[in-house]
Every structure is written in structure tokens, then in C-alpha cells.
Hints:
Mean pLDDT: 85
Strand order of the largest sheet: 4-3-2-6-5-1-13-14
Radius of gyration: 21 Å
Strand content: 15-25%
Distance between the termini: 16 Å
Structural class: alpha+beta
Shape: globular
Largest sheet: 8 strands, mixed
Helix content: 25-40%
Number of helices: 13
Amino acid sequence: xxxxxxxxxxxxxxxxxxxxxxxxxxxxxxxxxxxxxxxxxxxxxxxxxxxxxxxxxxxxxxxxxxxxxxxxxxxxxxxxxxxxxxxxxxxxxxxxxxxxxxxxxxxxxxxxxxxxxxxxxxxxxxxxxxxxxxxxxxxxxxxxxxxxxxxxxxxxxxxxxxxxxxxxxxxxxxxxxxxxxxxxxxxxxxxxxxxxxxxxxxxxxxxxxxxxxxxxxxxxxxxxxxxxxxxxxxxxxxxxxxxxxxxxxxxxxxxxxxxxxxxxxxxxxxxxxxxxxxxxxxxxxxxxxxxxxxxxxxxxxxxxxxxxxxxxxxxxxxxxxxxxxxxxxxxxxxxxxxxxxxxxxxxxxxxxxxxxxxxxxxxxxxxxxxxxxxxxxxxxxxxxxxxxxxxxxxxxxxxxxxxxxxxx
Length: 408
């Protein structure tokens, strides 16, 4: 069965709008108020939820918007059990943790970025230091690490025992399916030749569980470790903060794609992709498939869309449609990637949008918000269904086939 472009856009938009007539759209409809009527608001990835109260109080008491956003992302960076950023981040294919981050300070229209940093935990703060203490915008690799040390950041081993054991399990069972080509966008790429829930996959998972036990992965984490190996997480946290004066800033930090090639940088350190803030318009950031977001300059695209009159939700949906377009609507490929955008306009309107509804049916995408009330909200999805049903691979969305023609 083929779905028309009109049918796809109509159904997706209708479902999105129906699902989103909540605080996000109410804020948008009442968004023409003067700056004096603004309330402080923080919008971030859901792994920042535990750190919102402290950061919101800091923002409300007159704290700088970038410092407020950095207070949020520094929480996951410091958490050894958060394996997508900072300490405990999953390593590259050689077992080395490499971190990326960037930030933009709306009031002074400045930016800072670092990529491929080893041995330094709080790289979002290092990006801020690049912004404040150099004439550059971006430092990478060894130079960024030496700069961080010169600025007083301590060197430390970022590879926790849990992440090391997960990497070891990947090396033993899945390192043949690494990030060497051909990649998802290559004409030579072929979908994995596996049947969902086949006996072969059940056996492989059973063998991985046994090996996970043998190398000391705790029982309650074994299936989670296996999932990270079968579907290497992209992780990341983005945060944007707006104060009552209308000042706005944003930042993004990550350990990048698990088991990546050494030196790989995704979208998180790229100004305009993983994060973009314009004091005149708003701020946006992303988590998900970094390579795809770089190709559409996602955060910049969203902010420019808002500059030209789109609502936060419309602006984010347009960026997602550009990702779909880049794959010619091929669901057999799109089901292997995902993207979530976190969007905050300078009048306080906000949105969270995602390519799929979640990574799995029981794990929906969410954004975290604090505007006086701390809460998590489900994103509005462009495509119905999950990107990574487990085990082992997702089926195509109902009614959609590989040759769907809905976006031409």
C-alpha cells in the first residue's frame, strides 16, 4: 500500500496538532505579550528533569540564562550512571570516552564549542570557557583538552566500570557491526538480514546475557547493556533557558554515538546543528542521529523557521520532514534513526517534536519543562510508532511500505 504526500502530511499534521493542544500550544497562542509579562522557563531533554528545580530557582533569582542551562546539563555530565554524557559515557570503538559540547549566549550573541575531548568531564563548561576566554569558537581533540586543563578543569578517567563492561560485551559480540561503512545513507547499505523475534535472535540475546553475567554486568542492567549493543544509543542532553527579561541561551553536551570511530563528532558541538540560539528569535537543540541533524542544520533551520513566522512546533516538524526527504521517504532506512528537537521561542512558546513516538512502545520521547511547574511532556511525533522495537528490529509503520510516495 502506498500513502500519498497529501495523505501523509494531513494525517501526520492532524495527529500532531491533536496530541499537542496542551501547554505547548496554549503558550504559543498567548505569545504576543510584552517582555514584562514573561515568566522564566527552561526546556530540556528529559534526562535533565532531576536538575530543573535548582536551575529554575537560579534563573528566577536573576541568574544568567546560559549558566542556568549549564546547571541542568552538568547534572547528567556528573552522573556515572548516565551513559550518554560526561562521566560514564559509553566509549568509542577503542574503549575511550570522547565528549562534545557547544553553547550559545543570546544576550551577548557569543558561542563556544569543543569536540572529541578526552579526560575532561564537564565539557559544556569548557565550551563556555572557549567562548569567554578565547577569540575562537571551537576547539577539538588534544588542543581542547590542554585548554581545559589550563582553565582549571581536572583530568580524570571517564570510563566507569559499567561502561567498560558494556564496551567489552560489544567487542565480543557485535564489533563486526561497527561504524565503518557503508552507512545508512549509502546506496550500498543493506538492511540487516534478520526476522523479528526469530529463534536466531533469541539465541543470540540468550548468549549475550550469559556472557554479560560472566564479565560481571549486574543482573538488573544486563538487558539494558544488550540493548545498547544492538542499538548503540546517541544519548545527549540539550537545554534552553529564557528569563523574564527575554534573554535566552542554549547548550548541548554528549558522549556521542556509542562505539563510534575515534574522532567522530556528531551534531552536538556543531553550532547550528546540535544547538542554535538567536536572541531575536529563540533557541533550539537536538538529540538523536547526529549525522542526519548536521545535514539539515536542524537547530538553525528551526530558529530561522520561527523567524519567518512558524510556531515552535511547525518549525520543528519542518526540520524533521527535511530528514525524511533526505531518505526519499524510505521507511526501511528511516526506522533505524530518530531525532528529537527541543524548541523555545523568546516569548516563552515551546515545543518538543520527534521523528518517531519513541525508541520503543514503552519508552516514548519526552521533553522536560520548568516554568514554575516542573513536568515531563511527550513529544509530538511526525511518524507513528517506535524507531527501535526490541528485539530486534522494528516493523514498518502500519499502512506504510518501502516505496511510499508521500513526500514528493
